[in-house]
Structures are given as structure tokens and as C-alpha cells.
């Protein structure tokens, strides 16, 4: 008997605080006007996507002591945007990145429970930690938590929020969902938590929401992050979008689930993926080259090189050779608030490898950054892209993809109109939503049902 086809999960990422968006395109729009978010969300819902994903930047990034003017410089509060989108969509899941390093469990749990009620059970929380003191300067907690402490706090943060959500669980707790008044049981919402990071007690004032808890996403790629996801998350926002890397990551994370009494289908792996579509594969390849050159201007190339060199390279010609001087391996002081800095843990080795590549290929600084930077994951005609996505999912390199278009807000439209119908024809993507909640879209059980299974076992 042949193996049944897996159903593909698709989501849309509203591009975050980065230089993914091609601002020079006449179709590029605002990252702060609500009309951009609304257009993006409505397109995703028209295509029957599982959810919209919204990242969050907690501080304006700096380069050389000045605000980095090549990025999106700011955006409205995540909860505010998602709550507004709940009013202009009916089925689309609403996923927001909320930091566990600088917030408190009670306020975050209250916000997500409220969003779940307002949206009819469509909320999801991407649980992240913060790694740098620079961002922490905006908050009382600051950036003093080392990596192991950040994950320790994140685990307790999530567990504490779960206790708050669950303080309204049970048949003995009844409330009028229209007026919010109690009908019975004075214990409803009562909680006590005493732990290493949080010591709180009181009464949670938002009744049990349609999903019980928001769907939990996690985005860390370290060993600690993978364990955190295996123990507590419903889905992983992964960066491994190539076939080989995706299969390795998929296998590694799924095998960890058994340790926590979980099944492989209780955790979805959803890499971020970019795309460029053309009428033919050749046309798409040419468009992709042009997009990469638009994304990496000369100024952007120099700024990117500074992530590695940790030096002011503004005097260098982006169309000239790489610097002869070596990177400064000391504490990073050029680029602040940028996750890319962490990607180059051995800057001297990276510089040597890049010089060898540039010499062998006669690349300029800009050429090198274009060639070594993030390429589009899916490039081709609609038929080619649909086949590639399906091949990846059926080969267990992913359970689906979170798509990141390079034009906001209309860049998702062509995918919705030309690729989604092909996946639907193949029977690997829905033609209609099967249920009202995000858990329904993702094929995830309600937390109360999962708890019942565990108790029974």
C-alpha cells in the first residue's frame, strides 16, 4: 500500500525588520499603515492559508552608532495589529512574536486569551528570547541573561502562562460568556505559582478561550531551542528550507518528542521560505537575480560586511575587492540589535573563506554578499514551485512553509493566484477551511483532549 500524501501547511510572514522587502519596487507599500496588513491578511485567507505570522522588533537597529536606515525602522505593536486583523478576517490564524525575556506571564497570557476570544480561536504565540543587552536597555530586565538562563526563564514563562490559561479549565467552572459573570465556582481563575523566575498568585480574569491555549510556536535553532520546542511547542518556525538541511532538522527534532511523551504529529516544522515566480523557469531565474541585486544595494553590502569585520568599512567601494585587514574579533560595537551578528561566531575564519571565494570568482564586495546571502528558496514557474514545495513536504523536509514575499503587501497575491490552485488540484492543500480554529487548520488537538489522552495512558 502506498504511503498517503501529507497535507501541506502554508502560512504568510509579513516581512519583519530586515532588508527582505524591495523598497524600490513601485508596488512596495507601508509597513505601518493598517491597509498593508489588511491586504496581506485577506490575500492569505483567500488562499486558505493556515495563518499570518507577524514578527516584532523591540528596538531600532543601529550601525556605527546611527539608526540603520536600510531596514524597516519600526512597526505598530503586534497585539494591536493582530486584534485589528481579527476584525477583517474570519478563518486565518493570527500568530505573533512576543518576547519572554522582557515581559511577564500574566500580561502576555491575558493578551493572548483576549485575542483568542476576539478572533474565535485563531491566536498563536511565537515564544522567543532576547540575546543582547542593547535591546534590553529599553527594559528594566536589561540584557543580563545568558543563553541558558534565557531558556530557563522562557520555559518557566510558558509553563506559568499555561497555568493561567488552565485556571479556567474544567466542567466545574461555568461563566456567562456574554456578560462574563460567574455562574458557579469561586475558584475560577485562581492561580499560585512559585518558581525560580516567577512568584505570583491571584486570579486570572479572562475565561477559558476557544482554543484553551494559543498555538505555541518556537523559533530557536540551538540544542536548547530544539529541546524547548520538543517539550512545549506546537510548531517550529525553522530557517532550514533546503532539502538536505530540512530533512536533517526534521528528523532531529521529531525524534526528541518521544522523550516528552509526544507523537511526531504533535509538532509541525514550518521553515521560512522566499519565492520568485515567472511564466517560465528561465524568466523566474532572471527575476530572482534582479531581486537579489535590489535587496543588496552597495550600501547594504558594506553594512553586511561590517557584521563580520566589526569595523567601519564605509570608505570601501562595494564594487571593489574585500578589505585586506582582518575582522576585529572583540566585542561587537558596529552593528547593534541585529541577529545576523550571531551567525558569524568565528569572523576570522569567515573572512578567510570569503576572500577565497571572492578571489576564485572575481567577486566584488557586493557580488560576494549577493552570492553568500539568503537566496530565494523557490524560484520557477508556478508548476515548478508547486512541485518543489510538495516534494519537500512528502520527503519529510518540512510539514509546510511560512512564505516571505519580497514585496509588501501585494507580493503574496501571485502565489495565491497561481501556485495554490495547483496544490489544490494535486489534493495536497485544502480548498476550504475544515474548522473554525487555528488548531483545526493545523490538525492539532485541543489541549484538554491531549491532557485526557495523557491521563488515560
From TrEMBL:
Keywords: Flavoprotein, FMN, Monooxygenase, Oxidoreductase. It comes from the Bacteria. Its EC number is 1.14.-.-. CDD domains: Nitrilotriacetate_monoxgenase (cd01095). Residues 24-395 form the Luciferase-like domain. One of its GO terms (molecular function) is monooxygenase activity. Gene3D superfamilies: Luciferase-like domain (3.20.20.30). Transmembrane segments: none annotated. It is an enzyme of class 1 (oxidoreductase). SUPFAM superfamilies: Bacterial luciferase-like (SSF51679). Belongs to the NtaA/SnaA/DszA monooxygenase family. PANTHER family: ALKANESULFONATE MONOOXYGENASE-RELATED, C2H2 FINGER DOMAIN TRANSCRIPTION FACTOR (EUROFUNG)-RELATED. This is NtaA/DmoA family FMN-dependent monooxygenase.
